[in-house]
Design brief:
By secondary structure, this protein is an alpha+beta fold. The chain has a single domain (2-116), classed as Response regulator (Rossmann fold, 3-Layer(aba) Sandwich), CATH 3.40.50. The chain is 37% helix and 10% strand. A two-stranded parallel ribbon has the order 1-2. Helix 2 (29-36) crosses helix 3.
Length: 117
């Protein structure tokens, strides 16, 4: 969700990637559904592993270290501590989606301010 929101809110300043420690074969259908409610279509997206990430990252944002906390080198590492909605109700997916979007907008604004300064 964070990658999708970053691509919507800051495509001109941030190249966003999403990856996980244990990617599944397909994106969670409820994630697709709640993003589509916001007008974001991720049907062509697929889960990626950390090995798929570029090596020269400026920022790494982790949602939380509930499974494991691998080290991904970056100039700055940000921890959001956002719970995984998997297995929860659609209302929880929406609540978590909105939480992620708010954090993405805030981060995009901070990065833009760094670039401008």
């Amino acid at each position: 969700m964070a990658e999708a929101f970053m691509r919507v809110h800051a495509p001109e300043i941030i190249e966003a990637y999403s990856a996980g420690t244990h990617p599944t074969n397909d994106v969670d259908p409820l994630v697709r559904e709640v993003l589509l409610e916001k007008g974001i279509d991720i049907r062509n997206q697929s889960p990626k592993s950390l090995a798929d990430l570029p090596q020269d990252l400026d920022y790494v944002v982790t949602m939380g270290c509930g499974v494991e906390c691998p080290i991904v080198p970056a100039r700055s590492v940000i921890e959001w501590n956002i719970e995984d909605p998997k297995g929860k109700s659609i209302e929880e997916y929406r609540r978590i989606r909105d939480q992620i979007e708010a954090k993405v907008v805030d981060l995009a604004e901070r990065i833009l301010a760094e670039i401008v300064d």
